[in-house]
Protein 1
Amino acid sequence: MTILSVFDIGLAVLILGIGVWTIAAREAFAAVIGFVVYGLLLSIAWVRLSAVDVALTEAAIGGGMTGMLMLGAVARLRLAKGNDTRASLPVRLAAGVLCALVAAGLATAILSPPEAIPTLAPMVMENLAQSGLGNPVAGVLFVYRALDTLLEKVVLILALLGVWSLAPDSVWGGIPGLRLYAQRSSTLTFLAQLLPPLGIVVAIYMCWVGAKEPGGAFQGGTVLAAMWLLVMIAGLRSVPSIDQRWLRLLLVVGPVIFLAIGIAGMVLATAFLAYPAGYAKPLIVAVEFALTLSIGVALGLLAAGPPERVQRP
Amino acid sequence: MNAANLFGLCGAALVGFGLYGLVTNPEPLRKILAFNLLGSGVFLVFGVVSRRAAASGLGGDPVPQAMVITAIVVAFAATAMAIALVLRLLQETGRSTLNADNPGGTNTDRGNS
């Protein structure tokens, strides 16, 4: 038994333990903190599966952003007394048995390897050189499955529209109800002044390096969103109202450029979302940079929530 | 047992836990949390199953990795939407429960009037 396998077993036990904690904890607050830790541990598991791109996304979005959203919701829901009763013992037992069956079925599927293993990896590697990219995951995201990536950005914007549309009519176009912690000369203020320059550099680096190494538009965009939220929560910059034109422009610039290049591909190359030969890499990097901005703004606004007050004149 | 299978079994167990929490926990926020646990378990199982095809000198198959990245982002979007719905429910009724047969909360209908 090597050190690495001991590490893997320890990691799996920790993940399972914290997973149980997020379900079983009495306080919602404790469960959410558990969930953030769980996201970070899970990203280590993804690194162990040599999926570093997934690990970065899981840590940034699965743990960080979701955790932040949940914490905000817990703080608001704390005052609300739910009169929910837990399910009765027989129901819980039945649910436990059925869920264990589902898990056991999945475990059997994992332990019984198929005879012929389907994979597209060799095809990806054969054709990757044509795109000029070094990271096969970026190649899949922006070349082979570009339509998925484009639609995913649209899903983010649709989710944001959904969140905004939950606002009462009277505050439509107002300022999102992000909870602020604007205290003069607090540690948060210090961090909000210190971190954003570093964070912006890291975000640009992640976006740029995503063509060759693990990284990319999602990860860079999440870092940007985190920096923006930090500055807003510390009260150094005010939360913009959602009817600002620049805000909406930033939201759509990524998908619009992506779509424009896709349509140009119908004329200049062979198909929708095809890149002209030799120009693939510069076009993809341009799309990634525009998407990073849009993703950053979309994630930040999703975390900030629906508008709650209108701008005072 | 190799590392991939170990994490695959871990993912299978997480699917079970998440499903259990989703079914038995009455609070909407805890249901969303359990749903996320369920989702990440599914991603882990998917990642491990597809990793068998690790060929061409790669650590893993890039196609499913790209799909999992997309899935994580879409799951986040869905979570944000669900949390916004729960908070709006709280704003409208003063309660945060899915329990429909006990309409005891005061209806304050601030807003669309």
Protein 2
Amino acid sequence: MHQFLQQTFSGLAAGAIYASLALALVMIYRATDLVNFAQGEMAMFSTYIAWTLVNAGLPFWAAFLLTLIASFLGGMTIERIVIRPVENAPVLATVVVTIGLLLIFNSMAGWIFSYTLQEFPSPFPDRLLFGALMTTRDLGVIGVTLLMLLLLFAFFRFTTTGLAMRAAAQNPESARLCGIRVGSMLAIGWGLAAAIGATAGIMVAPVLFLDPNMMGGVLLYAFTGALLGGITSPIGAVVGGLIVGVTENLVGTYLIASQLKLTVALALIILVLVLRPNGLFGTAIVRRV
Amino acid sequence: MAPILELRGVKAYYGQSEILHGIDIAVAEAGMTVLLGANGAGKSTALRAICGMVRREGEILFAGERLERRTTEDIARLRIAHVPEGRGTFIGLTVEENLRLGGYTNGARSHDGMARMYEYFPVLATRRRQQAGTLSGGEQQMLAIARALMMAPRLLLLDEPSFGLAPRIVKEIFVIVERIRRDEHVSVLLVEQNASLALELADYAYLIETGSVIFSGSAKALADNPQVRRSYLGY
Amino acid sequence: MTKNSVIATDLLAAGRYAGVNIDAWRWIGALAVTALAAALPFTLSNYHVFELTLVMIYAIAVLGLNILTGYNGQISLGHGGFFAAGAYTAAILMHRYGVPYWATIPPAAVICFGLGVLFGLPALRFEGPYLALVTLAMAFAMPQLLKYFDTWTGGQQGINLIKPLPPPELGIDRDRWLYLVVLVVLLLAMRVAANLLHGRTGRAFVAIRDHPIAAAAMGIHTARYKTVAFGISTLFTGVAGALSAIVIGFVAPESFGLFLSLSFLVGSAIGGIATIGGAIVGGFFIEFVPNFASDISDAAPWAIYGLAMLLLMYAMPRGVVGSLGPLVAQLVRQMLPHRAEK
């Protein structure tokens, strides 16, 4: 029982990271009907930026904040410069562009920062809590993720820009008729998604060790979580991410170790999707007849 | 008085197809002008052309400003409010949020604007926190109009507000629109298939058939014209 | 339809042209291209022949993806897995059971068709990104499964195969013989695809892709066609996989991972996803651009590869054949004298 709780909690911590990245994916999907395959690599690159700042002597949280800002601006820039040209092209073209972006970020990170595994500092002391039920690190990760989610929720619910962004995602034409600059809203969305991704990367780097391929698995789990929750639902993204984290951990502990863990976890989740093809909280993808 | 909106030789395209073949329209300031015509004549396309929602050529002048090269957002910011076909409500958002969005370009004056909208459309006040998608057709139309009015427009473009609504509701809405036009000094360009009702309220009318204006004149002149009466008014 | 150059058919996809002239030109064009392709290996070095053979193999694989994603609208991020299935089928048959190389193609085709149908059935429930995930799972699972069942598959080490010998009467060497074998399979594949896609089945596929509800309302058995589309698609890709095992002489789980699946998708898009000729462009892209990228930048070759993808998508969002095809068709139409339609 103790082990079960322990694994569940550390699964929640991993799940919090998947949930963050899943949220970034869902944000962009809601606005553009597009899955940003490069989200993980962008997060990885942001983490390297944070790492560079920390190595340069900045205190952790200052580096964290600066990285968030840089990632936000970077995300906006990428939307304007890289994604904008294929905005009206067939969806597949945009998919290919994000795959290209994935390769570019991965390769550039390897080139600039080398492929050697790097240690990344954790802002949370490594102590056991509640009789070895969970670590302070796990709690810290969950806490940071929770805080980020609350801020996002507040932003979208209570601010005018947040409302305008929701409108632009739902109905871009009507949003334009209200005078909303839909293009700018899109760019802000990408910026936010990049900042969220950066948070996920920075939270996971202490555990996985920093290297250019760090976020590959995380992206897959995040994608799975987002779909499990329903690709159109932000709450679904969070719930889905958490479920994936816990499932992965429990499968790894009780069912099958290392190699096939990924396959089995995926299989379980796909089973759920077969029962609910639009995810737990998702709405059916509406088609015009 | 100079017209507030003028279209000169405006053509509009969906893809490669030319839908409007060079039309000339003038909307009098603080007046109500109506575009009549059968389904598919190009009336809605004319409104979309004004707002830059379709590819267009020709001259579009609004209070001295040229609109042909502007984006939809910029045209909206000139305080041209367009209530599109199908209402264009944000169905996933609440009534109040829809209104707030209408007032997006109005900033601080939004709050007063909302109070005034609830005065014009009391039913919206009772449903302010409801999701717009759960409103009835008539209520959604009122919401769409209210949202457009939130930007304190100088020109209101209304695309088939009677569509899919029961006659009683349509009358109610038109009465409110007329009241708004007088009280707020808004110029209105109305597109309607319901010719008789539109001609009762309008000052001036254009008849559009397959992308061209085939008749124009005062509303009374159109209503008295025997051909128009036979084809569009049913008697 | 007479034997036509399927590339030309695709480019002039607008349809029928009256007069024998045009068909005769097509005949000549098709034969010329085929003759050129057949003669080519005798003018190039062994290594270049090997590379071109791989281009053709990838083209067949990408053609399979085009049928599924381009014509039928079902996205697949897992075709690398089906490629692997074909490759390992051939490898195991040759290695364990001594089956001659040419006899491994039909079983690979049948098995991969079956796998595709098996996959296609549950896939019916999924659309868009959900389908992408399910197929992505396939791409991930395949290498892991291959490593797990190591008694059959040789596990991590893979299977080493003996490259087949050409028939001695022809007096050509192994690389050129295999090139010609693959060329024949490619031409066959393109012909089959053309017949399929330009006929009733193809129209059903496209109808399902664009207007599934209307298609069903017209009596098109959507589920059946979608499942068959999956099977045919994986058949093509599986055959390509089998050929790759024969030509390369080695299979190992690492070569069939996620990157391969993404490469197929990218190659598909770059060539033109709803085209037949585009598959060949895709094959060239997959085989050669990574090498060019390494030439340009030693340190970050994949960045160049990614950049190439970006630039090509900006320039030709519908792919090379998808974007240029209609242009060429228009040009040709303007050049030809007007005649009455047949």
